[in-house]
């Protein structure tokens, strides 16, 4: 297909595709004339993955390029590819997935205690660890007595959530396609999962405190 | 206590407290001299609630004032107060909790189908409905075939999450304090709950695809 059709089918503007080509995120098409090239389904799929990393995971173009290269290098190992997509595995020099320094020593002791209590096998590099410790610190700064043990029931529900998540991508065999889908579902579903919690909270509050449901 | 101690104990800067006093969010203290006033524990608690609404729920000062007035008016009914705190119940003229118009007809049919299937009692005004429909539209625009039925297993987990959430504030009897805590826990816990999901995903991926855990 021509670049215009690639643009139409991916929803990515022409100029953006050309930018990705120049930056080497997207491999060049097969040249058919001095200023014309043919693209195929692999380009379309790669473009979707780029959009997932840049638009959904929020990586810079330079970071996305590193991640794509590392993913391609390990493409036969789905676990490795997923790890790189999520920023858990280092993707080469630099570490675009690493969370910014927040002045702590980086050990995140509360996340570590929680992971151990759950018996989870989780990399030290998983940026989610830092979010756990930071959230608990914030809550305590607001006088809410909350520690990692208070998160244990939620961790058990998260375990079941993750099983549903992985079920949804189980049947995808191509590791890069699997990674794209995993990034999309992990990050894009977040607002919906939190919205479900709020709907369920209202329902639960109605059940406990009575009160008519509002129209 | 003097305003300086109120500032120290709440962590809210002196100037910000004076601003809340001028705007009528915080009731005046008891005047002890021409330029001096005494504040008490009710001021401290109200200040924490203001911070929860403005800093955590992200309301404007004007919206927070409306919400506070509506909450005070209904303070004997915890269900009503929680509904106002979350923006589910209208808080008077204007509707600071209402989600912005996104060009749809506002019926959110997928959220409605989900709520009905779950048998939930949830207000039409709950802004979380819109997030459900918007997320599903976004996923489909990226060629991920996902509808409200795919969210059902997650909704069941959300139901259990909400039970834990409400358990945590069950013992608080003062409705305004309960509302403050509910806003804090609902909004501040969100990143931690999503972080738990990511940790659990890595663990589940390791279990399914093998691969050594990274150091």
TrEMBL record, chains A, B:
Task: Give the Gene Ontology MF terms in alphabetical order.
Answer: DNA binding; DNA-binding transcription factor activity
**DNA-binding among the record's keywords?**
yes
Q: Which UniProt keywords apply?
A: DNA-binding
Top-level taxon: Bacteria
- Spell out the Pfam families in the cross-references: MerR_1
* Family annotation (InterPro entries): DNA-bd_dom_put_sf, MerR-type_HTH_dom, MerR_fam
Protein name per Swiss-Prot or TrEMBL? Transcriptional regulator
């Amino acid at each position: 297909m021509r670049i215009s059709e690639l643009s139409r089918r991916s929803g990515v503007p022409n100029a953006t595709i050309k930018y990705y080509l120049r930056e080497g995120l997207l491999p060049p098409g097969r040249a058919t004339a001095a200023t014309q090239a043919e693209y195929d389904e692999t380009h379309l799929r790669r473009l979707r993955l780029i959009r997932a990393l840049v638009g959904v995971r929020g990586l810079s173009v330079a970071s996305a390029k590193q991640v794509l290269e590392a993913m391609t290098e390990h493409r036969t190992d789905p676990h490795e590819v997923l790890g790189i997509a999520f920023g858990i595995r280092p993707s080469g020099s630099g570490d675009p997935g690493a969370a910014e320094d927040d002045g702590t020593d980086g050990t995140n002791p509360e996340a570590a205690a929680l992971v151990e209590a759950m018996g989870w096998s989780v990399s030290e590099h998983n940026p989610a660890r830092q979010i756990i410790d930071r959230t608990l610190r914030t809550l305590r700064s607001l006088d809410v007595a909350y520690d990692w043990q208070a998160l244990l029931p939620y961790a058990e529900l998260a375990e079941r959530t993750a099983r549903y998540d992985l079920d949804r991508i189980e049947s995808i065999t191509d590791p890069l396609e699997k990674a794209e889908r995993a990034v999309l579902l992990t990050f894009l579903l977040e607002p919906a999962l939190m919205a479900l919690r709020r709907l369920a909270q209202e329902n639960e509050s109605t059940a406990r405190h009575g009160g008519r449901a509002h129209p």
